[in-house]
Design goal:
Blueprint: H1 4-16, E1 24-25, E2 51-65, E3 77-91, E4 100-106, E5 117-123, E6 126-127, E7 130-131, E8 138-144, H2 155-162, E9 167-172, H3 184-207, E10 218-228, H4 230-238, H5 245-255, E11 279-285, H6 297-301, E12 307-312, H7 320-330, E13 336-341, H8 364-368, H9 377-396, E14 427-432
Parallel strand pairs: 1-5, 2-6, 8-9, 8-10, 10-11, 11-12, 12-13
Antiparallel strand pairs: 2-3, 3-7, 3-9, 4-5, 13-14
Length: 436
């Protein structure tokens, strides 16, 4: 294990050498790993009764529009590669440790001054373990990262949910990861399409792929979707919030007249065919777009899926009053919640900063991909685990956890259920029933 000093020396050496791509090992004591409960973690943040396995799957979405190759407004077709990571209840053989390593990269697609530098961190799952055979299929949860991000951005949540009896699949959105970040127009079109494709692939693997470890184990009719930032943007559209005419006009201007976004609007006759009633619950972490007029009142009213929104009150990317809070207020036909971290900014979803991101000389953006300047990200992670467990437990497992969600709006006025004494502070939780 490398100490913090050793990692710092390595990174300084990388800087001096022009940041050649070298795999940097993040220090990891098994005493604390991302997602472990802090002493003040709320009740439902603790892991469930299952051990956890993890596997990587390489998928291909055939005959998709190649948005990056648009010419004169037209896009050719291509086979779109999508890598996903799957966590699930697992059998841990005797003598095996429930530990794995995940690899992410610093930098953004080799941007000048921010070259790609891989780093690893450890998680509590065993790679390629056998799935636990159960009399009941496991509900599915799909995780969708922001622009840019990776499928390992919130392992604290994926491992935690798998330990509670879910199959969790996290997407590497092509053209939108740290490694391959490309023109934003690809993300605008593909985010919702990727989510629906992965849902269909999980259905295929569970229902007809007899050679898959997921065969006959996934209840895709009980699916939860979690989207962070651009993942939330796509998730809203996936769940029924059609884009506005202004959003489409912006996209057309940016692409020389391409019409790929037209069918994702409320005015499209085909839009209803693109939503999916297998998704029973939606968690939107700092969803992007409202402050940029991506939705209007009609579009937001199209969301009927129960939703749990999460935001920092000082979000400077998705914004708050005219951003996430406005989405919450406008989704009038959804039974929805809004959890607000007072004084937090945009990062209400990721794992905490890895130790490697704290070394002197790094671009501050490497640190701010994972950190908040007010809140301890480990604390945010634990609170997210708690509320997502309650929300998905109610809607996907029909568990009696609703009392963990029916709370006084202001956490400072008293102890919220499930929070240790003196620890429900600095947050708000709003709830609104659908208007019809």
């Amino acid at each position: 294990m490398k100490t913090r000093i050793q990692i710092t020396i390595i990174l300084i050496g990388l800087l001096a050498m022009g940041w050649n791509v070298t795999n940097v090992k993040n220090t990891a004591s098994h005493d604390y790993l991302f997602g472990d409960p802090l002493p003040d973690a709320p009740e439902l943040a603790y892991r469930g009764g299952f051990k956890v396995g993890v596997r990587t799957l390489e998928l291909v979405h055939e005959n998709q529009l190649d948005i990056l190759s648009i010419a004169n407004g037209n896009a050719p077709l291509y086979d779109r590669p999508i890598t996903v990571e799957v966590w699930y209840p697992a059998v841990i053989p005797e003598g095996k440790e429930e530990i794995t390593s995940y690899t992410q990269v610093l930098g953004r697609n080799g941007t000048e001054g921010r070259p790609l530098v891989p780093f690893t961190f450890e998680g509590r799952a065993l790679r390629n373990a056998e799935i636990v055979v159960s009399d009941h299929k496991y509900p599915l949860v799909i995780l969708s990262h922001g622009y840019v991000g990776s499928r390992f951005l919130f392992t604290y949540l994926s491992e935690n949910l798998a330990s509670k009896g879910y199959v969790v699949v996290s997407i590497d959105h092509t053209d939108s990861t740290y490694k391959d970040a490309a023109n934003f127009t690809s993300t605008l079109v593909n985010r919702s399409l990727d989510q629906l494709f992965v849902l269909n692939e999980m259905a295929r693997l569970s229902e007809s792929a007899k050679d898959s470890f997921l065969f006959n184990h996934v209840d895709v009719n009980n699916t939860g979707l979690v989207g962070y930032s651009m993942g939330g943007y796509g998730g809203l559209n996936t769940c029924g919030a059609g884009y506005s005419d202004k959003a489409v006009a912006f996209y057309k201007t940016a692409t020389g007249g391409n019409t790929a976004l037209d069918e994702r609007t409320m005015g499209s006759e085909n839009y209803g065919n693109f939503t999916d009633d297998r998704i029973k619950a939606f968690v939107a972490l700092a969803p992007w777009g409202m402050a940029n007029e991506v939705w209007d009142a009609e579009g937001l009213a199209g969301l009927k899926t129960p939703a749990f929104f999460v935001s920092g009150s000082e979000d400077d990317i998705s914004m708050y009053e005219n951003g996430v809070k406005a989405i919450y207020e406008g989704t009038v036909n959804s039974d929805r919640y809004l959890l607000t971290y007072i004084n937090a900014r945009h990062n209400v979803a990721p794992n905490p900063p890895a130790e490697v991101t704290m070394a002197p000389g790094l671009d501050i953006n490497e640190y701010l991909r994972y950190a908040d300047s007010v809140w301890d990200m480990r604390r945010i992670n634990n609170v997210n685990q708690h509320f997502v467990t309650a929300f998905f437990g109610v809607h996907l497992k029909h568990q009696d956890l609703g009392s963990y969600l029916e709370l006084a709006q202001d956490a400072n006025t008293g102890n919220w259920k499930g929070f240790k004494p003196r620890t429900s502070i600095g947050m708000e939780l709003r709830h609104a029933a659908p208007s019809r």
